[in-house]
Automatic annotation (TrEMBL):
InterPro entries found in the cross-reference section: MlaB-like_STAS, MlaB_ABC_Transporter, STAS_dom, STAS_dom_sf
Pfam families registered for this protein in UniProt: STAS_2 (PF13466)
Organism of this sequence: Methylophaga sulfidovorans
Matching PANTHER family: BLR2341 PROTEIN (PTHR35849), INTERMEMBRANE PHOSPHOLIPID TRANSPORT SYSTEM BINDING PROTEIN MLAB (PTHR35849:SF1)
SUPFAM superfamilies noted in UniProt: SpoIIaa-like
PROSITE patterns given in the database record: STAS
Protein name: STAS domain-containing protein
Boundaries of every STAS domain copy: 1-101
């Protein structure tokens, strides 16, 4: 079984790397794991390349992170958006709001 969800900061690339699932099943864990994780950096870049599964709950988590960054007055961007998440974002119109790299 794969890791349900993890977010770690990579000092070399200065990027947060998300691994595992971003689904309804992992959403609660993801909220807990990511709480306060962005506090120590000025620019928030999140790499989603290693996300194994994603759904609308995962997309909602990205929106929550955007809200957190806005409150902290920090720029945020996402790269390597998973295909499933990209499709949901396009269908809902959120793709125009997501800060993608």
């Amino acid at each position: 079984m794969s890791e349900l969800f993890a977010i770690k900061y990579d000092d070399h690339s200065k990027t947060f790397v998300v691994t595992g699932e971003m689904t309804l099943e992992s959403a609660k864990l993801a909220l807990v794991e990511s709480k306060g994780v962005f506090d120590a950096v000025n620019d928030i870049e999140i790499d989603l390349q290693h996300v194994t599964q994603a759904d609308s709950a995962g997309l909602a988590l990205l929106v929550d992170w955007m809200r957190t960054a806005k409150k902290a007055k920090k720029p945020i961007s996402f790269k390597h958006l998973p295909e499933q998440m990209d499709a949901i974002a396009k269908a809902s119109g959120l793709d125009e709001l997501l800060p993608l790299k």
